[in-house]
Specification:
The chain is about 15% helix and about 40% strand. By secondary structure, it is of the alpha+beta class. The chain has one domain: 2,3-Dihydroxybiphenyl 1,2-Dioxygenase, domain 1 (Roll), CATH 3.10.180. β6 and β7 form a beta hairpin. It starts with a strand and ends in an 18-residue tail after the last strand. About 40% of the residues are buried.
Length: about 220
């Protein structure tokens, strides 16, 4: 039985600094600057949710040409939860299992960013191509020897629940089960919903998981222009 763990959840916003300020006002916790993705034209802020999980606030870097992922944030009128990642050390094994299930995979792709102290962090990512689930279908990440981001910053909020809704919930659940992913999924309009416990009480972060720039692509978001 293959198993993956919920690794991190992504909040996108048209203005990265404003998104970090929005989260600080909402939760009472100031996100830590993570660093820049040199090949994507994006940067991020991070919030630890405890060992093994974190929240990533991501946006374009002003003055730099963004790739596909960065371009999408200009269409977000407000910060929103749009995708999530699962962690595994068996990207190739999962790729084979998913292909047997009829799911097209893209990658693995090498990724990196420069931390706030100038150190390079590296990882590998496996994505799924040609599907209709948008951000309701996660990408997979293997951190290799890189320390997990959740342990590099002090946790100040706690993970409570994460739920997914989609019109084709049964098919999505089949894929989740093949991955060994334990996430509650309901049938309904496409939606991602994360509940956190913060110094200012329980907060809910949500989004539709809409990623129109990625639909039908055979190329990964992290490897496309």
């Amino acid at each position: 039985m293959l198993n993956v763990d919920l690794d991190h959840l992504l909040i996108g916003g048209s203005d990265l600094e404003a998104t970090a300020e929005w989260f600080a006002e909402l939760s009472g916790v100031t996100p830590a600057f993570g660093g820049k993705h040199p090949n994507l034209g994006t940067a991020n802020y991070l919030v630890s949710l405890g060992a093994g999980r974190y929240l990533e606030l991501i946006g374009s870097i002003p003055g730099e040409k963004p790739r596909a992922l960065g371009k999408a944030f200009s269409d977000f009128p407000t910060p929103q939860l749009f995708w999530f990642a699962t962690a595994t050390e068996k990207l190739s094994t999962h790729s084979v299992a998913l292909k047997n299930l009829g799911v097209v995979t893209a990658g693995p792709f090498a990724g990196s960013r420069l931390s706030s102290d100038g150190k390079e962090l590296t990882w590998e990512i496996l994505e799924f191509g040609q599907h209709e689930f948008g951000g309701c279908l996660p990408f997979m990440i293997d951190w290799g020897k890189t320390p997990h981001p959740s342990v590099t910053i002090q946790p100040a909020v706690s993970f409570h629940t994460f739920e997914v809704a989609h019109p084709r919930a049964r098919r999505l659940q089949e894929i989740y089960r093949s991955l060994g992913l334990d996430v509650n999924i309901q049938e309904g309009n496409s939606r991602l919903e994360l509940t956190l416990d913060t110094p200012r009480g329980s907060i809910v972060l949500s989004g539709t998981g809409s990623m129109p720039w990625f639909q039908g692509s055979r190329h990964g978001v992290f490897n496309s222009q």
